User: Fold Exodeoxyribonuclease III from Caulobacter zeae.
Amino acid sequence: MRIATFNINNVVGRLDNLIDWLAEAEPDVVCLQELKTEQGRFPAEPLAQLGYGAAWKGQRTWNGVAILARNAEPVVTRMALPGDPDPSQARYIEAAVNGVLVGCLYLPNGNPVPGPKFDYKLAWFEALIAHAQSLLASGAPVVLAGDYNVVPTEADIYPRHSYGGDALLRPESRMAFARLLDQGWTDALGALHPDAAPYTYWSYLRERWPRDKGLRIDHLLLSPNLADGVVEAGVDRWVRGQDGASDHAPAWIVLDR
Assistant:
């Protein structure tokens, strides 16, 4: 079972890129973030022609999340994160697919720091940590996948970077991510690539893609009853190199189930 997460950064504008990747990689489950389209404009029909059922929560201009399932229909269990400090923002959707509960999330960026956007990021993180604990308590096999907007360690960003006090690297952000992992979740990419986990994001600025100045901010966290079943994990870097590409590349895992 191949599960992927991909910040598409405008699902309508980059539909061709998405379709090319889906046709090549054939993931079984996909979590999409930053749809940047309202609910009624999500391209469900062309995705269905490729064999993907979809559940989504759109938002005009900003945010938006979706779960795609190959040759299946996601069974939606939640359309919002419990306790979300601003439920008007479309940042979380949860669905069951082939016996796995999948939470797709787009955690707030949090910049500039300090300020209300960073306060919102930390508050959203607290709500996620609380919900994640309840998911573990349920005993269900769970994947929490998405753009976390957190670089967990200095090993997850290019050397001699210029991000300094950016919200993605702030100690508060990293500590919140570590608290989440301490509940018992496994960071699949980090676990399978302990020496050099692959980057998932390259800014459009300052030629960071051609110079491979990337960050790892897209993560797939696995509940303990799934962690032992991961046989592969990686990033489809070639997607970032396409014409008109998102600034993210799809990150994925393969579960033996």
User: Anything to note?
Assistant: The chain has one domain: 2-255. The chain has a mean pLDDT of 97. The two ends are 6 Å apart (CA to CA). The longest strand covers residues 100-106.
